């Protein structure tokens, strides 16, 4: 049966502000799933806390809304329990790069076949406009009227330095490119990170749609850029201060964690009979006596 866009729609009314960049991310994700003809029952969305955390409610699939910063460990657990599911983790820059930072680094280095979409708006939108980990130094908000004194997290540089096997960045206003990047992330065998510049129209008056349209460099339009060299990718994002979109790096030799673990069953744990007979149980206990 052919999958259509309506199959990924839900009846829940959105509570995002009109013009929020997350609408573009939602649309691009739905289009990517339809383009790849992935059925809703084959997808699990694990969403974090923040405005972006509601995205799972607007996609007709399995959906888990987890506590702050625990998006990735929850997603990795789902994937290990049922490796047949397409597991997509989704959250904001606060959820992923503040309380969730440690989990991000370990998800990258483990290379489990989970796709991570971050809606990065350089602000805490849900809690009314404080600086987030990706806010630029000097950015003024209500909670920091004299300007942000902290250095920002650079997600692309961080992911590349930590050994990510797939790194891309999209812009929520460019749905065609973003949908294609998500499709490529889904096809990638391993952990795939898609950072998405998703403007907050209510609280961030600096990183706006107009700002990104005038400053972003689209690497997909550069015929000389190759996305198979980690060093060159890192040099490029540093040169452009991460104001780039497109496929930044992909390791052609990536092996997902599930395939690297010796003896890890190809049959999902969720589909196996894990009951133990009395004899098996007694034998197991004997090892610990």
Describe the secondary-structure layout.
Layout: H1 22-35, E1 43-47, E2 62-65, H2 71-81, E3 86-92, H3 93-97, H4 101-110, E4 115-120, H5 155-161, E5 166-171, H6 175-187, E6 192-197, H7 209-215, E7 217-218, H8 230-239, E8 244-250, H9 257-260, H10 278-286
Parallel strand pairs: 1-2, 1-3, 3-4, 4-6, 5-6, 7-8
Antiparallel strand pairs: 5-8
What is the CA–CA distance across the termini? 54 Å
CATH superfamily membership: Thiamin diphosphate (ThDP)-binding fold, Pyr/PP domains
Poorly predicted spans: none
Task: Give the tally of β-strands.
Answer: 8
Q: What's the overall geometry?
A: globular
What sequence of helices (H) and strands (E) makes up the elements?
HEEHEHHEHEHEHEHEHH
- Strand residue content: 5-15%
CATH architecture: 3-Layer(aba) Sandwich
CATH topology: Rossmann fold
Q: In CATH, what is the class?
A: Alpha Beta
Please describe the biggest sheet, giving its number of strands, its sense, and whether it closes into a barrel.
Answer: 8 strands, mixed
Count of DSSP H/I helices: 10
What class, by secondary structure content?
alpha/beta
Number of spatially distinct domains:
1
The spatial strand order of the largest sheet comes to 2-1-3-4-6-5-8-7
Q: Helix share of residues?
A: 25-40%
Mean pLDDT: 93
* Radius of gyration, CA atoms, in whole angstroms: 20 Å
């Amino acid at each position: 049966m052919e999958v259509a866009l309506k199959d990924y729609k839900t009846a829940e009314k959105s509570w995002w502000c009109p013009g929020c960049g997350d609408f573009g991310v939602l649309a691009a994700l739905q289009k990517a799933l339809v383009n790849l003809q992935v059925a809703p029952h084959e997808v699990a969305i694990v969403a974090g806390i923040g405005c972006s955390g509601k995205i799972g409610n607007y996609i007709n699939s399995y959906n888990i809304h987890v506590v702050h910063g625990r998006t990735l460990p929850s997603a990795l657990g789902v994937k290990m329990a049922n490796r047949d599911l397409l597991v997509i983790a989704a959250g904001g820059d606060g959820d992923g790069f503040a309380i969730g930072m440690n989990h991000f680094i370990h998800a990258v280095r483990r290379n489990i076949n989970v796709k991570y979409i971050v809606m990065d708006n350089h602000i805490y939108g849900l809690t009314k406009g404080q600086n987030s980990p990706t806010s630029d130094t000097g950015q003024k908000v209500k909670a920091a009227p004299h300007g942000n004194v902290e250095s920002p997290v650079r997600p692309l540089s961080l992911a590349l330095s930590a050994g990510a096997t797939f790194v891309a960045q999209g812009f929520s206003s460019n749905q065609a490119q973003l949908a294609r990047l998500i499709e490529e992330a889904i096809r990638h065998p391993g952990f795939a990170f898609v950072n998405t510049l998703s403007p907050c129209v209510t609280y961030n008056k600096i990183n706006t749609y107009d700002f990104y349209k005038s400053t972003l460099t689209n690497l997909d339009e550069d015929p000389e850029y190759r996305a198979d060299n980690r060093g060159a990718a890192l040099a490029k994002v540093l040169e452009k201060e991460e104001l780039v979109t497109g496929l930044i790096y992909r390791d052609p030799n990536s092996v997902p964690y599930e395939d690297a673990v010796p003896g890890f069953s190809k049959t999902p744990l969720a589909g196996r009979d894990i009951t133990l007979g009395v004899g098996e149980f007694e034998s197991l206990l004997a090892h610990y006596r």
